Give the backbone structure.
Amino acid sequence: MGKDVIVACDFSSAQATFDFLDKFTEEKPFVKIGMELYYAEGPSIVREIKKRGHKIFLDLKLHDIPNTVKKAMAVLSKLDVDMTNLHAAGTIDMMKAAVEGLTREDGTRPILIAVTQLTSTSEERMQKELLINSSINDTIVQYAKNAKEAGLDGVVCSPLEAGMVKEGCGSSFLTVTPGVRFADGDVGDQVRVTTPAKAKEIGSDYIVVGRPITAADDPVAAYRRCVEEFVG
Ligand code: C5P
């Protein structure tokens, strides 16, 4: 599995998404579809974007009882997404059920990655509200190990956490990392950011980049710059 740049298509309608994708006449970027767009437009948005030749990371972060997650994953697998995800907090049993649901008859399946702790969760809140007494870093690494044990391919994490995840789970365990900004770019609401070049150095396998590309004056040029810095 090669390194790639995934463009976060955080648009609220199919039309806005297609207007954006129409700008790419040469490349077919790997795109991330999140809850907002999927809930607004339904599975047809996935079929449409696939038909246009893009790979899709469907970011729905499933978390429910194992049987429900297994059945939902079977539906996503039929939609032919290339990558999807769930919350590792659902336990190893839930993650194993997800792998089963996602696996097609011929044994193939989309890449499945886990969210460990959301980057919006602070260590203080995790300890006080969720009653998890470990450090947030230990929790992230343990959840990543659980995901690996369940047969998942990797985790979503901050590029700054990618090193410790690789150390705990091995270099072939994938790290998919948002929070990427150009050195001369706007940070926006992201707090812990790195550049595409730095993410490459740290060992991220996929970077997820939204506004630095979607809000750029020239999104195609911004995408190319990301690919050049990250993939080389
Ligand atoms: O626009 P920006 O580059 O900040 O977009 C990053 C994308 O990655 C968004 O879709 C955001 O929801 C997602 N994401 C994130 N941090 C996480 C998990 C997902 O920024 N921990």
